[in-house]
Amino acid sequence: MSVAAGVPLAQEPVAQPALTTDILVVFGVVAVALVLFLTERLPIDVTAILLIVILVVLEPWTGIDPSTGVSGFSNDATITVLAMLILSGGISRTGLVQELGRRMAAFAGTSLRKQLFATVLATSPVSGFLNNTPVVALLVPVVTDVANRGNTSPSKLLIPLSYASQVGGMLTLIGTSTNILASDISARLGADYPELHRFSMFEFTGLGAIVALVGGLYLVFVGHYLLPERVPPRADYVEEYAVGDYIADVAVVPGSPLAGGTIREATAVLGPEVDVVQVLHDEDRSVAPRQATRLSEGDVLVVRTDRDAIATLEDAEVVELVGDPQSAAEISALDSEGILTELVVSLDSRLVGERLDPERFREEFNAAVLGLRHHGTVVGERLVGRRLDVGDTLLVQAPPDTLDRLSRRDDVIVAREPPRPEYRADKAPIAVAIMIGVVAIAALEIYPILLTALAGVVAMVVTGVLEPNELYDAVEWDIIFLLAGVIPLGIALEQSGAAAYLAFLVVQTAGFLPTLVVLWLFYIVTGLITEVISNNASVVLLIPVAAAAAAGIGSNPFAFVMAVTFAASTAFLGPIGYQTNLFVYGPGGYRFTDYFRVGAPLQLLLSIVTVLGIAFFWGV
């Protein structure tokens, strides 16, 4: 039954569902999930596995048997997302996204408005067909370079990059993993609500295009006025991270027991707070030297430590402090011997939760750690032992060839383009043809997107776009585990009656409001919840409630499903609501409030545009 906007039909009183023990138990599991997602006491993938275990252990109340508990791993949405991540990885290996970003930025020059226009135009359309997480990861160094060449603060461009990718993800079914999951939930609920069905490839492209256009115009013409210049144009990394305060040059004195020994042995003598980042032997300078590097008398060691340790080095007998302890001339010189750049800890990085060990980091990444920015704040004194988190930014110095290798790793995002990037550019036409084929066959409904995406993965390997061993690196496994964990939680919500009970409460408290207002409230609530838990968890929790509430007030359940789906992909109020926001947190030097300052007006604007668009396209 459709309802004219703003004039709800009179409804028969709906009987209140019984608040059973099953519902209370499921609510308890949801509460545990929310607390774990919010506090991040456990990694997101571990939390997802724990949810499966809890749901199955509590089977008498949740109704989730072992088979249903692990069904998320074989769910169409999970497999489709996995395949699409691999396809996105194939496109990224060709360098196509980076080349598009560079070409779109070529005309920008020093005009901030042109730079913003290039950023939005290079990001939004691409994010409609590739997962927006790798798109942003690939474009962070491109956009940073555009800002530096145009004498613009990167802070003016990086949040718009993240936001543009989010609104662009709403152009097609495959733009985000959230869309694919929402489609699967909608199809499952179709048995109870005839209006619901699996989304087609371009089901909401019309509305998505409007949202992307409005969001893009806001970012180009309004948003940049609200963004401060946290990082100055062409920022001096050494000055920004105050590296000079923690760098010292020490020479191996004649007769020192360090002569003939290794850097590992020197570190043991000088103390764990001292990290050797360069070695000057005669005229040769070694950047990020290996622990097995041998030292000789007269070698000069450039060390990174804290102020107290620098004072201790002045009294050390095995080395002699040389030069100005506050000088960082050797570090700031960007020559062929070593390049300064920032590395952002990515979402599925092995570094997340690890304590920073500069020695081990140098051995694994061949880069010397000089500074750290945690939650937007530069960490000055003690780096050793700091626990790393998603979005933390490390200032490192590394040889040029190392920078190229780092740009192809999944552990970190390099915030500066390597000088000699190695892409499979000759495979770009093949990769694009495969992607077009996947989209076209699914759009024509010849075969479902699950099958076409898997066929595309095989084609990527057969044609040499991807090597077989690169398939696993292209997948963000924490997202896959998250989907596998929250899918059975959604089933428990539906089967236990918990979703219906929540929907009854919504109808009782908001049923007297105009239908458009209730729809708008679902959008706002979803957006707020997405800020503290994952967007995928948001749709799992709220789509069943939204559909039941819509039926309870005689509205169109599909309209409410669309509101939740769109809102779950627009996390603009803080850095933790969406992974792309974290990727730009460090390189932009942002504070938490910067996201809210520019994101709150955008969230409000898009909530109105989206709700009115839903009413126009599907009716409420």
UniProtKB/TrEMBL annotation:
CDD domains: SLC13_permease (cd01115). It is a multi-pass membrane protein. Keywords: Membrane, Repeat, Transmembrane, Transmembrane helix, Transport. One of its GO terms (cellular component) is membrane. Residues 235-319, 326-412 form the RCK C-terminal domain. This is SLC13 family permease. The lineage of its organism: Archaea, Methanobacteriati, Methanobacteriota, Stenosarchaea group, Halobacteria. The chain crosses the membrane at residues 18-39, 46-64, 76-96, 116-140, 204-227, 430-462, 474-493, 500-526, 532-551, 558-578, 598-618. It comes from the Archaea. It is found in: Membrane.
